[in-house]
Design goal:
The chain is of the alpha+beta class. The chain has one domain: Gcn5-related N-acetyltransferase (GNAT) (Aminopeptidase). Helix content is 29%, strand content 35%. The protein is built from four helices and six strands, in the order H-H-E-E-E-H-E-H-E-E. The longest helix is centred in the middle third of the chain and has 15 residues. The two termini are 29 Å apart. GO terms for molecular function: acyltransferase activity, transferring groups other than amino-acyl groups. It holds the Pfam family Acetyltransf_1. This is N-acetyltransferase domain-containing protein. Keywords: Acyltransferase, Transferase.
């Protein structure tokens, strides 16, 4: 993503993930925002989630899994039947969490740059 495209995405996060087709979930530790996840509609019945982060100082509380479970529950309530995402291959603990939550690997989308194929993976699951 180019710097210009990245900046535009940041400026439009509220529109990209707004209700009723998207969502932003925030996790807190001792009242301090410590993690988040965002999702939006990719196509009718299918959601894509992005931007799952847990603050380094808040890791070890299970926030990632709690965010993932809460997001899936909200997606089901929103009427989605499937969810997918992409993530970096170096985030091995995250991948294990996704696999434990029922996500399975899927192919890279058509046109995905060859130079990124070993750095990024895609997964999905039914809801």
């Amino acid at each position: 993503m180019s710097p210009v495209a990245f900046e535009a995405t940041l400026e439009n996060l509220h529109d990209i993930h707004k209700r009723p087709l998207g969502g932003v979930l925030i996790a807190s530790v001792d009242g301090i925002p410590s993690g988040c996840v965002m999702y939006s509609e990719a196509e009718p019945g299918v959601a894509e989630f992005k931007r799952m982060f847990v603050n380094v100082s808040s890791r070890g509380y299970g926030l990632g899994r709690k965010l993932l479970d809460a997001m899936i529950e909200q997606m089901v309530a929103d009427g989605y039947q499937r969810v997918f995402f992409s993530s970096a291959t170096f985030l091995k603990h995250a991948r294990a969490m996704y696999e434990n939550a029922g996500f399975v690997p899927i192919a890279h989308p058509d046109g995905f740059p060859d130079e990124w194929r070993d750095k990024v993976y895609f997964m999905e699951r039914s809801l």
